[in-house]
Specification:
Helix content: 55-70%
Number of helices: 9
CATH topology of the largest domain: Hypothetical protein af1432
CATH superfamily of the largest domain: Hypothetical protein af1432
Structural class: mainly alpha
Distance between the termini: 62 Å
Radius of gyration: 18 Å
CATH class of the largest domain: Mainly Alpha
Oligomer: single chain
Shape: globular
CATH architecture of the largest domain: Orthogonal Bundle
Largest sheet: none
Number of strands: 0
Length: about 200
């Protein structure tokens, strides 16, 4: 199941080609999603062959950002189709990998178990203790790409996203739902404090 060469290829490609302002959709994020996807795939009982496909999909899922943020999931799927034959993947495997990648496009549209695993891995951090640290990386990435968001608006965006989000797999629900709820409660508190303060300033 070794994907060492593929991992090295993706890491080097992203380091070389990602725009300088990409601090959230980074190599670290890709490797984090890969590790989460592998963990969930094992917990969900996938066989070794299917775990290999999920891991490959995780490695490629944001590679399209090296080309464009717009529709980057579709571009990532295309890049997977371009490069994966060189790493020993056949056409049927590549098509499954491509469907997994496209399923991560928001709002997520997972139907198969492997698609659900990758979607849950992509947003694994929502239910972790480093949620706020990673979230600030996303906000910084937005600001560096000229999408500035006030702190109040940021908290509202995060709050609404957490309220709408759900993990597909039982394993992710068991691992992450409790902490995700705590993160939501903290965001709600911060949103109330920050946004009420802004309202008072404008009275």
């Amino acid at each position: 199941m070794s994907l060492t060469n593929l991992t090295e290829f993706i890491v080097e490609k992203m380091k070389r080609e990602l725009p300088h302002f990409v601090v959230y959709h980074s190599v670290d994020h890709t490797l984090d999603v890969h590790d989460a996807a592998e963990r969930l795939a094992v917990l969900e009982g996938l066989n070794d062959s299917d775990i290999r496909l999920v891991r490959a999909a995780a490695l490629f899922h944001d590679s399209g950002i090296t080309v464009s943020f717009i529709d980057h999931e579709d571009i990532s799927a295309d890049l997977a189709g371009q490069y994966l034959p060189s790493f020993g993947f056949n056409q049927e495997e590549i098509e499954r990998i491509q469907r997994m990648i496209v399923a991560t496009k928001l709002p997520q549209t997972a139907t198969t178990l492997e698609e659900k695993i990758l979607c849950d891995a992509d947003l694994d951090y929502l239910g972790r203790g480093d949620f706020f640290i990673i979230g600030q990386k996303l906000r910084l990435e937005w600001e560096l790409s000229d999408r500035k968001v006030s702190l109040c608006d940021w908290y509202i965006i995060q709050m609404e996203f957490l309220r709408a989000h759900f993990y597909f797999t039982k394993s992710a629900q068991v691992l992450r739902n409790e902490r995700k709820q705590k993160n939501l409660e903290e965001i709600e508190h911060l949103c109330t404090f920050s946004c009420n303060g802004n309202k008072n300033k404008h009275r």
